[in-house]
Records
---
Amino acid sequence: MRSYYERLGVLTCASNDDIRRAYRALALSAHPDKGGSRSEWGSIQEAYETLSSPEKRCLYDFMGAFAHLSERNWSQPGPQATSGDSYSAQPASRCGSASRLLGKRPAPSHAPNQQPGPGGPPCVDADVLVQLRLTLEELFTGCTKQLRLKRKLFLQVPGLGHDVATGSWAETEELFRIVVSPGAREGTRFSFAGKGNLLPGAAAAGSMVIVLHQQPHHHYTRRGSHLHVTCTVPLLTCLSGGSACISTLDGRTLLVPLGPNCLQPAAEHVIRGEGMPL
């Protein structure tokens, strides 16, 4: 069964705005009034109602896909990725309210990537997931980013074993350098082993994982390595066989000669070698 995030087509670290935009986009194609399936639309609505509510989303993230329907899964919390923006990564502190939702303390987990500790959120993952938002121009030309990101460390008192009751949480900050190659795709991951959260009893810290996310562009649409742009050309220019000017992502101007095909609505003209770098 697909998770709620998969139904909406978003990452687990998606913001409320990302979830809202995804839901609206699906409404244009999956709504029954638009020819979509009623059962599919019902599953999308169910996912949106859960993920758009901070408390319901916290409970879903902490307990797993069916935790909001049954309390028997408290002993099996699902993974919760931390999230952030271009300059900071915030641990999944929203999950700290999960136990308050049901008015009880969740049973401790023995999963290797989730172990609660005093003073720390109950669902901290070993891996820290950060979303790096880039413009289409930055992905086209390539760029270098320096991000100052935070992670959590569980400090154990020497000689007292790995009992979480004898340790404490600390937060540290580190600078990461990301070199994005020209033509990089959305979803590309940069992983730094040992730079994530250090959990109680773990021999090493998890990874800091930075995922590329492309911001919407006002002019171009990217489809794989191809760039699509829509030009509105006056009828007189089409009839006289003129040219259309297109501004490229790296600041150049292309002159596109208009032939007879441009008189057809939605006619396409392909300029080879002017897409995303390979």
---
Amino acid sequence: QQIFSELHQFQTPGYRKRMNLEYIHAAEKGAEAAYAKKQADEMEREDGGTEAGGAEGGPDPKSVPGDQLVEALSPDSQIPLHVFRTENPEIITMNIEFSGFCPVTVTERDSLLLPGDPTNGNVLFKGKLYGFVSMDALLRFMKDPNKYLEGVLLSARKAPELINMLSLEQHFPHNILRKYLSHFGSEETLGMGKSAEAECQTPTHFVEKRIDPKYDWNEWSLRRKAIQLANLHTKRTHSTQTNQSHFRRENETQVYIPKAGVTQTSTERGTKPVKTLQYIAGLRGHPDQVMEVVKVDVDLQ
């Protein structure tokens, strides 16, 4: 809850400036004395006990001796050096580590990403430049820089998304996300996407689709077919013949087809019987006329 509230305040206009002023005023009394004492110890260690800085307020952080700057640029250097990029041309072109985010807030405030404030200067340690959100964070880093550098790596192990956000690929060589996204960060692809003309040629008559009617994509249907095939291994066909089924079999018989026969004789005979016809008379005429049946035998011989 505290982190979210601080993030909300950080987005308000002028909050960073007010926060930095509060840190600067809070550490104003002891910051210069602590820095002067640290620089004096470094000078005594290098020059064999020579005096470094004045009695009041210590040396000016912006006036860094050249030999100290050269030694801090070495990867084997173990002494952090407070420098300003605007006053030291040797480090103007150097990039700030962790993409400019403060390593102290990442370590002490649960991987909180806050950009460093260039007005506080930077710290040069083992040939690398680091930025800080406040002067208090800068002084805490100079007391034990290895503690905060290891804390940043530990936070990246807990939250892998910080590997690409803080540019920690050299410490995590197995991370390949940056390799896949490397071409998206080029200058050519920062603007609108490229466009190119393209054309394609299609045939006049397309080939008919070859659809397999036996293809089935339904998982349950495939399971049902698999069960049916598995059940067939346990089945066999039985047949039995009985007295009744014996007569149902197919039989074939070969016979002689009857022949047509004709006989001619010398005498031709025939008979023509009498044809009897019946008529009904009296159906028309006078009403008193009697109806009667008239039979007529017709002999055609």
